[in-house]
Amino acid sequence: MTMVSELVLTRNQLLEISRKQDDNGLKGPLQRLSLITAELQDGVMKTRMQPIGNAWSKLPRIVRDLGAELGKRIELITEGADTELDRQILDLIKDPLIHMVRNCADHAIELPAERRAAGKPEQGTIRLAAYHEGGSVTIAVADDGRGLDIERIRRRALKQGLASEAEIERMSDAQVSRFIFHPGFSTADSITAISGRGVGMDVVKVNVDAVGGLIDLISKPGLGTTITIKIPLTLAIVAALIVVAGDQRFAIPQIVVRELVRVKSGADHRIENINGAPILRLRGRLLPVIALSALMGTAEPSFEDGFIVVTQIGERQFGILVDGVFHTEEIVVKPMSSKLRHIPLFSGNTILGDGAVVLIVDPNGVAGLVGGTGAGEAFSVEAPTSVATAVERTTMLVFRTGAEGVRAVPLSLVTRLEEVDATLFEHGSGRTLLHYRNRLVPVVPVGETQLRAEGLQPLVIISEGDMTVALAVDAIVDIVDEVVDIEMAAVQDRGIVGSAMIRGRATDIIDLAHYLPINEHGWRKSATVQGVPSTAAQVVLVEPSSFLREMLTPVLKASGHRVAFAVDFAAAHQIIAAGPVATLLVDLDGDIDAAFAFAEAVRSGEHGHRLRLIGMTTLVTPDLHMRAGQARLDEVVAKFDRRALLAELAERRPGMREAA
User: Does 230 score more than 60 pLDDT?
Assistant: First the structure.
């Protein structure tokens, strides 16, 4: 492995030389060398890989013994035991995994009598899952126990002096829960062989940090806790982003990088100062910013110009300000010198292609400076801002009509954006038609737009049930997220609702009802198929959030589904009773117990065995999958994963779980 690492370094040096010289004779052999090096590296990596099930082999017996000792009935379910991981990392995470499972058995899973009283099955479940995800391995440990006692953690944190009373009051539940990773922190009242010794989740976090991994937890009172660990496949060779701060280069592991944002004075993204701390306002969220050059003491940071590396550690996001970004590169991680290992900002160093030695930034070390345990003041401004913005802002599609006209329409009403060859337009009966997706669709110019005779014509596709119309525009300008306040109502122009300021410019908001050929008999006729009226819903979406309903409408309609909406379960029952329904999409983010009770009631109904029941949530966890199976749901999908949602709707086999 060491020799392959050196070969990768030499390859990087040759690539650097090749970039500076325009020698075609060198590029061919170098490309071949690069390919051979990659194959050799892959082969050597495979010899080091071992299935993660090797680290799980002792867990069933540990859980069985703990259950007998504690008087609890516990079942251990493992998924992805064949997921492979570097042997070195496997050795380091073996003990943390055992500790987390013991913690679930001792702290989380209730006694059978408590579980009966809470309406749960007497047997508790611990689910251990591992899977590959984008060059790293994710391990999730979930239980269906009592969840974290947030108030108890608050009291213990205050008692141990980890934060002041005012600071703890301002913290969210997620921030408070991270106190369990603090050294010496324990919620156990008495010392036993299993817990209460002050050696707890802090050791797990130290071991995960040591391999460059991330740890996060989600807990819901009475429902259970899920702890997620994300670790690299190997410690030897990792992908990194090369950045510059001052006159020095640094490497940031790509596993923690969410996105890059360019900041400049006068631009949309700029750094603001709140209570003396630099803050980036990004899509309605406030992210604390820390300048890498200030940390290293290489130069005075400039908050007027630079790049923000948006970094995520668990549920926390923050920005690292750098002066420039070079490229991503596979780097060979070399251990830090013993004289520098005490510095928490660095996890190692590497040699770049030009022979320069650069330090590898440890994101966990930087996160420790931004609000400490994640409970700092810099993070406390985040939640209320994002909630308020989600309510007030509207996502608008902005387009140009004519030479100067700029108009907009809510993106939630748009099904698709297309560019079609103008020669495909057909004319008849004073109308322009387009053969679009095996049907004739009317093409209606918006405002001053003139339909093109040749070249590509931009179209905004609008669908309502089975009805579709194509609005012709001159150019698509942008998609913006703005607080839309219609200040000037239109009087003469029937195609305009009014005008609003969008991105500092007066923009007309179009009235879609004016452009839809509702009175044309042929267009409306297509709304009835085989005698079934367009009001008959194939899919019922039970979602209290109007924002999410508007977001999912175009997706579902564009895929050919008739859709009905219900804001609560009572309304959903009425829709099901009124007409034929093929699929139910049920929100699981609100009252999850009520959602599962609704699913059980529907499944037990007259036509329940023929229905497809799909749960929708913002975060899919192993624990949620397990509960969904118990409630006889067919599947659980993420609300923002449109591909997965459409793939599930494409399954025409109702009641799959029921049939199984």
Answer: yes
